[in-house]
Structures are given as C-alpha cells and as structure tokens.
C-alpha cells in the first residue's frame, strides 16, 4: 500500500461531523514523546505534517489527516507525561476515553505506540485494557528501535510480545523508517 496524498483536515476538541462521515479512522496513541507525530510523518513521507513536539502546554485536540482521500490518520494527545499537571492528565484521559468510546465512529483502528527504550508502562497497559474492553482492533508499533543494541532490542520485543499475545507487534523507527512497510500493510489490511 502506498500513500499518495496526505493533508491536514482539522483539529477537534469535541464532537464534530468528521467523526461520523463513515471513513475509516486510524488513531495513533501512546505516551507523550513516544513519537506519534514523527511516526505519522514517516508513514506519509512528510517532515512536518503532524506536529512533532513535546510541548507539555499545547492544546488538547485530535488532529485529523486525510490519507489517499479515503481514510483518516488521527493524531491523539500523548498520555502520561510527567510534567503535566494533574488537571491536564485528567483532561487528556477524558478526551481519549471519550474518543475511543465514541459510538458514532463506525470504523476505527488503533496503532498503539510503545517506546522501545522504556517498554510497556502502566499507562500502556491501561490503554490496552480500554481497547480490549471496547473490542477495538489494534496494532502495536514499538518505536525508536534504532536506539537499542541488537540484544536489548530482541529482549524488549520479546517482553512486549509476551504481554500482548495475539497482537501484531511491529518494530519501528520513525528515524530510519524501519518497519514502515509492515506497519502500512497492517493498517490497510
Ligand atoms: P507528543 O505529541 O508531545 O505526545 O509527542 P509525540 O508522541 O508526537 O512525539 P514526537 O513525534 O514529537 O517525538 C518526540 C521526540 O522523539 C522527538 O525529539 C523525535 O525526534 C524523537 N523520535 C521520534 N521517533 C523517533 C525514532 O524512531 N527514533 C529516534 N531516535 N527518535 C525519535
Ligand atoms: Mg505529537
């Protein structure tokens, strides 16, 4: 599958008609700084389509990108950033749960991004529980594998796969683009 076009459509903060226009929504979720925006940029071959920053103060919104005029990539706010205030943590949590549980979205998939260096965190485990509870199809991308030595990498991938039996776990690097073909294949499957 090749991405031939990608354009930013809008950022939403609550209900919006884009949610129920019937197109597939592929949401990218993960801890703040895990590389959601970088990973989206690497998939669509654009340096700056999704905002790549870890500014803890930025507004909480869901960014919609139209891909090949047929589906959306959705960049979600990152969870679990240590510098967020309690209030901000809570706002992000509410926003994500609202979006993931929003029943008007008929067709969705989630790419859960895990940091290869950090591994599965408690926040990631909670997210997996939510996805399972709502029977949302998801794929795991283990980003930043370029930062690990061969042995560490093997061990980390093994740990993650063990905790996530039956789920596709794809080693990825937004930096080197390793895993891009495999991830696109899973997304468009
Ligand atoms: P928030 O939107 O703040 O939650 O962050 P994010 O998850 O969108 O992360 P972002 O794409 O902004 O990347 C965070 C930092 O990690 C940046 O400095 C990126 O350059 C770096 N980064 C992202 N992906 C990779 C990767 O695959 N390898 C390496 N080495 N660095 C990466
Ligand atoms: Mg981002």
Account of the protein in words:
The protein has 189 residues and is an alpha/beta fold. The protein has a single domain, classed as 3-Layer(aba) Sandwich (Rossmann fold). Helix content is 32%, strand content 22%. It is built from five helices and seven strands; from the N terminus they run E-E-H-E-E-H-E-H-E-H-E-H. Strands 1-3-4-2-5-6-7 form a seven-stranded mixed β-sheet, with helices on both faces. Strand 6, helix 4 and strand 7 form a beta-alpha-beta unit. The protein is globular and about 45 Å long. The model has no long low-confidence stretch (mean pLDDT 90). The site of guanosine-5'-triphosphate has 19 residues, from helix 1.
Total domain modules: 1
Structural class: alpha/beta
CATH architecture: 3-Layer(aba) Sandwich
Helix content: 25-40%
User: Uncertain segments of ≥5 residues (pLDDT<50)?
Assistant: none
Estimate the strand proportion. 15-25%
**Topology pattern, helix = H, strand = E:** EEHEEHEHEHEH
What general form does the structure show? globular
> Helical segment tally?
5
Please report the first level of CATH classification, the CATH class.
Alpha Beta
CATH superfamily: P-loop containing nucleotide triphosphate hydrolases
- Amino-to-carboxy terminus distance: 9 Å
Associated small molecules: guanosine-5'-triphosphate, magnesium ion
The profile of the biggest β sheet is: 7 strands, mixed
In total, the number of strands is 7
For the largest sheet, list the strands in their spatial order.
1-3-4-2-5-6-7
Overall pLDDT score = 90
CATH topology: Rossmann fold
- Backbone CA Rg: 16 Å
């Amino acid at each position: 599958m090749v991405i031939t076009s990608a354009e930013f459509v809008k950022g939403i903060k609550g209900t919006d008609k884009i949610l129920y226009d019937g197109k597939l929504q592929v949401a990218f979720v993960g801890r703040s700084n895990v590389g959601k925006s970088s990973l989206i940029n690497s998939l669509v071959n654009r340096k700056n389509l999704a905002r790549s920053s870890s500014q803890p103060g930025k507004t909480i919104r869901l960014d919609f990108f139209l891909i090949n005029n047929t589906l959306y990539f959705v960049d979600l706010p990152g969870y679990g950033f240590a510098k967020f205030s309690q209030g901000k943590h809570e706002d992000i949590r509410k926003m994500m749960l609202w979006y993931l549980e929003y029943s008007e979205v008929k067709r969705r998939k989630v790419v859960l991004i895990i940091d290869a260096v950090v591994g599965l965190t408690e926040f990631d485990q909670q997210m997996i529980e939510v996805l399972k509870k709502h029977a949302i199809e998801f794929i795991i991308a283990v980003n930043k594998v370029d930062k690990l030595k061969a042995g560490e990498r093997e061990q980390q991938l093994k740990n993650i796969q063990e905790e996530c039996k039956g789920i596709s776990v794809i080693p990825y690097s937004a930096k080197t683009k390793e895993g891009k073909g495999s991830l696109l294949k899973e997304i468009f499957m």
